[in-house]
Amino acid sequence: MRFSFGLVLFALPIYLPKQELSNFVVGLIAAAYPVAETISGPGIGILADRFGRRRWIYIGLTISTMALFAFTLNNEVWYLIVIHAIQGVAAAMIIVSSLAMVTDVSTVSSRGREMGVYDFSNLGGYVAGILMAGLLARTNSLVASFYLGSALVGIAAVFAYFKIKQEPQRKHPALSPLVTIRFLLRNRHAAAMFPIWLCVTTFVGTGLTFGPRIGPSPLLTSFFLSGIVLILALTQPFFGHLSDKYGRERLMMLGMLSLIGLFATVIAMLRGGLKFVLVAPFLAVFGVGSFAFAPAALATLGDFAPEGGRGTTMGVYSVVISLGTVIGPLLGGYLLDRYGLSSLFYVGLLILITALALAIAIARPNLRNLASNSTSH
Fold it and tell me: Residue 187: which of 78, 102, 313 has the closest Cα?
């Protein structure tokens, strides 16, 4: 699934004519996917809790197969918005159900590692898809990526139907969405993660939407993006294991502080005209450190998800993720058109600091308890 999504994420901005569309319009097309995922995610989570995870995975893959093929039929703005929205609904079915299934089969002591492996499979698919899209962009066919993506997801749908085992009957009845959301919001650790997730996915949405358009060439940009995603994928099981061993909060804080350091380093490079060789070690350390957040945060969400509301929990998580990827393309398109590339990093640093401060304020009573417990031991 992620191989095909990587193909489309990279190919879609190139598929659009640069001269005729502003960056903001490209952001509107890109945002249709996460808007649809935001709206449908909680509903899919409820259905996954009530009727099981398996069926929504292969139904979502089947819908995505048709949507990817439909991209080849027209490149009018309104048409691409509708098709991308349909693909967002399909993505919600797959992501919410598969995350709930991983939570079902993992335990608290191993959930960080399991979520890291899940992230590895997701990101590894993106790496392959982005690389393949960069190679296909050198051909004369702008729709080749969509044909290949549709074929791959079609194969995945058949595989999912026959190979994914039916999950066992759950012991606990499905909880209502309101009960599940109330449970999550009352838990300060779970609630504190949401502003940070929103912040991180805003940057992801911006980078994936505009990276292919502002890079030196489709092929070079695909190598650069896929290289970053490959490092991210390879580090996820490791950071997930560290979160199991040393605690989720420490790894999430490491990720956020590293992201702040990364943005500050880029701003210093842009303002001071520093040579890349001088800042490369800082970019590498902060860049890798920022990857610690995702597996620890996913494992934390799984730890706190009530057994009868895991699908709904992942639906709520999907809403936050999707909102970030809505804001990212729209905000990024506006800033690029109005103020240029450097404005993305200034605004990004401000958003990061605000999100971290808000998360600490929400989780403060729990952090005090954690500190007192550590001191007593």
Answer: 313
Who contacts 164 (Cβ-Cβ below 8 Å, separation ≥6)?
A: 54, 57, 58
Q: How many residues make up the chain in this entry? A: 377
Question: 319, 326, 324, 321: which is closest to 43 by C-alpha?
Answer: 319
Q: What is the mean pLDDT of residues 158-180?
A: 71
Over residues 66-84, the pLDDT tens digits come to: 999 998 888 788 888 899 8
Q: Are 25 and 77 in contact (CB under 8 A)?
A: yes
Asked if the structure places residue 376 within a domain, the reply is: no
Note down the domain range covering 236. 2-165+175-368
In a domain, 374, yes or no: no
Q: Return the number of other C-beta atoms located less than 10 Å from residue 323's C-beta.
A: 20
User: What is the number of domains present in the chain?
Assistant: 1
* 131 within domain boundaries: yes
CATH of the domain at 133: 1.20.1250.20
Q: How confident is the model at residue 100 (pLDDT cuts 50, 70, 90)?
A: confident
